[in-house]
Amino acid sequence: MKFTNAVKRKLIQIAAFGFSNIHLGNFKSGSLYTGSWKQFCNPGLNCYSCPAATLACPIGALQAVSGSMNFKFSFYVVGFLLAVGVLFGRAICGFLCPFGLLQELLHKIPFPKRKLPKPLRYLKYAILVIFVILLPIVATDYMGMGKPAFCEFICPAGTLEGGIPLLLSNPRLRAVIGELFSLKAAILVLTIVGCMSIYRFFCKAMCPLGAIYGLLNKISIYHLEVDEKKCVGCQKCAHVCKMDVDPVKHPDSAECIRCGECRDACPAQAIYLGFRHPAKAGENSAPSKK
Q: What does the pLDDT average to over 255-276?
């Protein structure tokens, strides 16, 4: 049985989601996994406080380090993000991000479909700079500790995967629910509705992790190339792109998650997606779909 590239991608997404959230028994007890795997970062967005989570969230870890009393610079967290980003770029978003898979499933729900207004694409960069980088350093308490502002005030993944399950299993937490949770619940509802209407709404507009990987898309080793000699200008690749990218004009777009749908739609096989172009490796054969 031969699987299409779309099916292969979905299987990889499911496998990544399963490994990222393997401790399902913790949902009943309301406890968190704190084993050795938790010291490593998940390449995608997955809340540390999710009872089932195996790995730490890189955005949460980045804020925790920035907001420490000694303002220590974590070479591990930043180095991990740079290494993964330079190697894969936003292919991480397309294949390994647990919250990315949830967004795609939400978009399958029957609901009026829309496209994201282009100016909103830049919102995620503002969130990255303000809530992930600046506020944990600038807004500190009397002990000099900064707050993980993105996790505390915005992150809908944290509310869905961590906040709600912990509240359901812990009566004491339910007793102290305040305005902050109401704010985050409203953001979660907005995100869910947005994802039902707009493909990967959070990914396109709000995700600071996607913003980091997007900035590295232009230099990532795993990349997309268009053979201009083969391209017939049919625009089928642009029409099938759910991230609203024209691969011919912008093969290194920060919005491209390297899903491969444009490559599969190309009638001339002019699009290559991978770590290196076979022709540049000294091979005589033309790139083919894999």
A: 95
Mean pLDDT of 21-39: 94
Residue 199 has pLDDT above 60, yes or no: yes
Helix ranges (DSSP H) in the chain: 5-20, 26-29, 58-66, 75-88, 91-95, 98-107, 123-127, 135-138, 149-153, 156-158, 164-169, 171-174, 179-197, 201-205, 208-215, 236-240, 261-265
What whole-number distance in Å separates Cα of residue 165 and Cα of residue 31?
10
> Cα(169)–Cα(58) distance, rounded to whole angstroms?
26
Burial per residue of 247-286, b for 16 or more beta-carbon CB atoms within 10 angstroms, e otherwise:
bbeebbbbbbbbbbbbbbbbeeebbbbbeeeeeeeeeeee
Query: Distance from first CA to last CA of the chain, Å, rounded?
Result: 15
Dist CA 214 CA 37 (whole Å): 26
| pLDDT for position 176 | 83
165 with 81: CB under 8 angstroms? no
Q: Interior CA angle at 249 toward 81 and 289, to 5°?
A: 75
